[in-house]
Amino acid sequence: MGPLKILHSESSKGWGGQEHRTLKEMIALRNLGHTVEIVCPSDARLGIRSSEEGFAVHHARMRGVGDVRSMLLIKSLLSNGKFDVVNTHSGHDSLVAGAAGRLAGTPLVVRTRDLALPITSLATYTWIPHRVIAVSRYVRQYLISAGVPDGRVETIYDGIVKPEGHLRSTLRTELGIGADAIVAVTVAIMRDKKGHEDLIAAAQPLLNERANLHFVMAGDGPWFEKIKSIVEGLRLEHRIHLLGFRTDVQNVLRGCDLFVLPTHQEALANPLSKPWQ
Question: The Glycosyltransferase subfamily 4-like N-terminal domain covers which part of the protein (predicted)?
């Protein structure tokens, strides 16, 4: 099989494990000699990061099944670009870009499922794509139980990027934390079921007992202001550090002693692989 021309689609505008996996996959496929491009909303973080990495980025709103304009735009993109594969990721783009792929006669339409949440549209796993990628065995088993034929679903685990080497972290200098401090970190988008509130509640008695203990939370999202208000209400800004969105996650991890994963559920706990990289 020769090099393929692959178009990824993503309607999500945020940045979390799903978007991070997609970008890593795009980079890996390009390194193998394939041509990889992406279509997403103009303000999607994945599109911005992809552009920084040198990928061709196309823009479409992809607001749902009724977004005919985006569907026709992507159909034209697929036909004129002679793409071999369209790989969709979220609900809206799986409807819009997936249907566009079918209308354009793209040889392979693939849907990737990155979440452990209940699916909302069975059609985006059965009728539209030729194949479905599950990021873990649990997700594959769930999709099959929900009605997706087992012969259509393959499990492809997340890859681990080779570490850069033993570089010194700048995190403690940035936060004004001494070398003798104990620093615990979590990396996750701030939204429901990620457990940030639980971690703060668990941290409170520990912080009272240990003057040199600090917690670091890397990531932003729809709950960022809510979590920030909780921390400020407890007057713990100097002990619980909210970093927001970071592109230097490895630098953050190298500056910490403990990694904490307080999430309620994960399709594949990608953050757990990061401390080992």
Answer: 15-160
**Sequence letter at residue 110:** V
Q: What is the pLDDT along the chain (277 residues), one digit of tens a residue?
A: 789 999 999 999 988 888 989 999 999 999 999 999 999 999 999 999 999 999 999 999 998 778 999 999 999 999 999 999 999 999 999 999 999 999 999 999 999 998 877 888 888 999 999 999 998 888 999 999 999 999 999 999 887 766 666 678 999 999 999 999 999 999 988 988 889 999 999 999 999 999 999 999 998 888 999 999 999 999 999 999 999 988 888 899 999 999 998 888 765 555 555 544 4
**Other CB atoms within 10 A of residue 131 CB:** 16
Quote the CATH superfamily of domain 5-155.
Answer: Glycogen Phosphorylase B; (3.40.50.2000)
Convert 178-205 to b/e letters by CB count within 10 Å (16 or more is b): eeebebbbbbbbbbeebbbeebbeebee
Which residues are registered as beta bridge partners of 132? 111, 153
Cross-sheet strand order for the sheet of 240-244:
240-244, 213-218, 182-187, 258-259
Do the domains 171-276 and 5-155 match in fold? yes
The topology (CATH level 3) of 171-276 is: Rossmann fold (3.40.50)
DSSP E strand boundaries for 24-130: 35-40, 56-59, 85-88, 108-113
Q: Which of 131, 89, 95, 132 is nearest to 114 (CA)?
A: 89
Domain ranges of the chain: 5-155, 171-276
